[in-house]
Each structure stands twice: as structure tokens, then as C-alpha cells.
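Tutorial, part two.
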Amino acid sequence: MPTPRQIERRQRVLRISRELFAQQGYQETTLDQIAKQAHIGKGIIYRYFGNKEDLLVAVFADSVEKIQTAGKAYPPLVDGDPGARIRYILENYLRQIEEQRETFSFFGKILLGLPATPWGQRLRQDFISRYLEIVLRRKNDLHETMQAGHATPMDPEKLLFLILGAVHGTICWWIYRGCPPGLIAETEPLTQFVLHGMLTPEGKALTKVQPRPVKPRK
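Running the prediction step on this input gives:
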């Protein structure tokens, strides 16, 4: 079990790495720079993280973990309104991203720019695996919402992916625009999309597209 000193030292390496990666870029940042600013030997970084690529993935996972931890402090249902809780969770998530916009702008560009080589594919898979490991913990929250009769019954994992698709689309759009101030202002349109879908009430009334009956599996 790691000692308090080891935990503090590991967190220090992650914090300094996150700052240098965001400021200088991945290629330009060296383990020697990180070790010097963290006041440790470079061998300790190898002991904790293996290599520079693994350190990059660990920094990403730590950033996502911090957002998930902050997001757990959501309030109970407000006046029996489950939508209020969803709005709060989405707002808190976007606020965390915006407050760390240098970090997530960097990671967004890294993921979008990875080459279609074995190295790039492996690194992308490492990012995705660590991310899913963290965010899929929230599917139990969705399961409880369904059990309470507040959400459409379906596989909670599937519903979580559908919500994440809307959230990530908003964040990717924001990164594409250069991460301008104001991401948190997208909370309301994102909430309405998650709760009510794409069409307005008028659009729903006009559409001729009807839900297809689900065929039973053989």
C-alpha cells in the first residue's frame, strides 16, 4: 500500500506533468524537465508510470477522475424534479472542463491528431480504456433513476453512452472553436437536448416518422 509520501509525490508528478504538457506540448516536454520541477529523480517517474506515454495517459485519467469526483456532490431531487439534478450534473461537468480548458484543449488535440499507426492506435485505445473505466461507474446512478420511474427503461450503460455522446459533441465543438470562454453557457441547450431530444414540440407534432415496432429476438 502506498505511503502518504508516495501518494503526495505521485500527485506532484501528475500536477507538474499536466501543467508542462498543456503549456509546451507532449513532444516538447521531457521527463528530465518534469523530474527537475518535481524535485525527484527521473527513475522515480519510471517506477510510478513506466514511460512518458504511460505518464500522459495517467495525467489524462487523473484529470477525468477529478471531474468525476467533483460531479458526485450533486443534490437530491429538487422539488421532485429529476431534470434539475441532470442540469446540475451537466453544468458542473462543463464548469470543470472550462476551468481546465488548457488541459482539455491539449488532450482534445492529442486525441484528434494521433496518427493511424500502431503507436497511435495503441495510445488512443489506452485513453479510451482508462476513460471508460472511470465514467462507467455512473451507470448505477442511471439505473436508480430508471427504477424510480424517471427515465426511459433501457440498458443503463447504453443510456450513459447516449448522454456522453451529446456531452462530448458539445466539448469537441468547443475545442474546435478554440476553447473560448463560455462553455458553461451551453448547459441549458445541452440539458434540453438530453431531456427532450432534437425536435421542438412543433417539430414532434409535424413529423411523420413513427417509432418502429421492436421485433422480439428469436
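The first helix runs from residue 4 to 24. In part three we will examine how such features are distributed along the chain.
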